[in-house]
Amino acid sequence: MANLGGLPHELLEVILANASLGPTDLANVACTCRRFDRAVRSDLLWRIKFGQRWPHITMGRLEDLSLNWCDLYQMRVACSSAVSSAVRSCSACFFHKTEISTNDFEKMLNLQFPLSFIQDELERFCSSEARCLTTQYYARKALIFLQQKQIMAELQEFLRRPEKEQSLVEGAVLIARYCNPMEDVRLTHVQAQISEIADKVRHLLYKMNPTHPACNAGKGGKQMHNIALQGQVLDALNKLLYQHLRFTGNEEDYYNPLNSYLHQVLRRRKGIPISMCILYAAIARCLGLHLEPVCFPSHFILRWPQIDGALEPKDFAYVDAYSGGSVQSASVYRLARLEESVTDASFASSSTSAVLARMANNLVILGRRNPGGDRTFQLARSSLSLYLALVPEDYQYRLLQARIYLHLCIDIEQVIESLQQIHVVDPLQQGIVVHLIEQAMERRAKPAGGTEVGVKRRMDPDTERVRFAIGLVMKHKRYDYMCVIYDWDVHCEMGQEWQRTMGVNRLPGSANQPFYNVLVEDGSCRYAAQENLHLHPDPKPVSHPEVGRYFSAFLRTCYTLNPEMAALYPDDENVVKQLLSAASQ
User: Which of 166, 271, 339, 419 could form a disulfide with 276 if both were Cys (CB 3.0 to 4.6 A apart)?
Assistant: First the structure.
């Protein structure tokens, strides 16, 4: 140690910065003498140590906190402990609730720590394969909450900009990010792909007309005013986009939410009218052709001015990016929509916020269809939040949001406040609003724990017919999907209308047989009859976002119940062992 003491200060810092030395080692070194104590207190040393332990946190954002690096290091350690403790306690606190509310998240996550610290710790929980599935599940939900909170703030800032500074592509990417908060959706990546397509159009345009001004234009795409030259851009764009790259309107799977997300349209080369038009207009703008968005009834098109100072619908041609970039006149669209109310206003250019509101409304409609059986209404909730940020005065949708929150028993205070506003401004809704306010008041008065489900024991006589158990990976005999059981009933508990729709009466065992709630590999939740299920011959983990709510781990052939599920189904783990043992013989 005496020899080390004679080293220059800079060299001593390099030695102490070695990655093998942790904070405890440094504390021990600091206790030896004053010189070492000063070396250990070096801000540069702790900056290096911080980067070694948490390399993914952006340093620039931390420097804005006006703290030295030793304090930042200690704060990050404290954040790790707090987030870990909060996430591990979630299942015991929230298992019996249908969904976690915003207030729950605010209380669960100690937001006194920097947001980047909390997000980084939650991402570590989500990415570690060694973690308990239940803690991963709640960490993921918390991370979604934080990501959406941050993206919504970005959207609000975007909407405060002047109209000329609001890019449709940027707005569409914000919508995609908000609805897919766990995906890496970046504006720069989308813009780069659009620029790449525009470059390919330039190359094709050069073959058609080497002297065309768009061939030599920069990335900004200086606007052209010559209609003939603009027409050549459209011809080249249509040929490249629809013939070479095979982009198309997704008629076969029109109601898939992926059709509305710009990054997915670029990846899958399929979309709906509004997303195809946004992409088409962005590429055209790179080439000097400015097309205006039109929220036409039951469709979405782009308008292309044919004369300077165009004002009337007849002064424009209309481009349908969903149908191969076809160009039609206003009269053609009027004839095609005779049954609808089409006026001159129907052909007006739409603002950026109006286009984004229409995108969000499309997603609300898809979320309400709920084809995947998502009991948390995640798509409906996300798209409603987006739509109401864009159109806050739409009280019909505010009422819908209040009803969904009330159904899920989340954010009850927000529900009451929203309903009271609707009661004041919309007299036509007062009857239902008063009823919902009364329901919300009753929910608020109930204990915060939610409604507990009764324990299901195998010793009850009625349960003898229940052949399978919680945690088993099954295969559906008819539809061939893989799933995992997370609940069972002695007989069908669904209403007569559902039974008629699903053809339960046509089953040999009809409704008088055990039925199982299952999580399916496609992300849906289904209710399956016992006679339609059998043990999967090659069980694998089921890729479903709700798996962690019920199970702590997947052990080769089945799932292990977490403590809350084990308390509800105390005999099922033994049944699983017996069934798997018999199947292996």
Answer: 271
